[in-house]
Amino acid sequence: MAHSTTDHAAFGASVNPIRRFLGRIGEFLVSLSFAHGRVRQVQALQAMSDEQLKQLGLARRDIVSHVFRDVYWM
Predict the structure, then answer these.
(1) Which domain holds residue 63?
(2) Which of 41, 52, 62, 64 is positioned for an S-S bond with 48, CB 3.0–4.6 A?
């Protein structure tokens, strides 16, 4: 009889505090890059005319909630 598992310490959370700290910094930098892209998308949509937004099915007041729809709900 053999017993196997996919839960192995080598693949779990790191117990090394320096490695955890650096991992958090990496996560923060990734979130910043996503936020920067979203801000640029909001700016691009804000630069459009109301008619162009209407063709996209958006109202000006809904731009931010549209761009960040997967992050929060308004």
Answers:
(1) 17-67
(2) 52
pTM for the model: 0.55
* Cβ atoms of residues 67 and 45 within 8 Å: yes
Is the residue at 2 inside a domain?
no
**DSSP summary character for residue 49:** -
Q: What is the pLDDT of residues 7-36, one digit of tens each?
A: 555 555 557 888 888 888 888 888 877 777
DSSP state of 11: G
Task: Please give the tally of structural domains in the chain.
Answer: 1
Contacts (Cβ under 8 Å, ≥6 apart) of 63:
42, 45, 46, 53
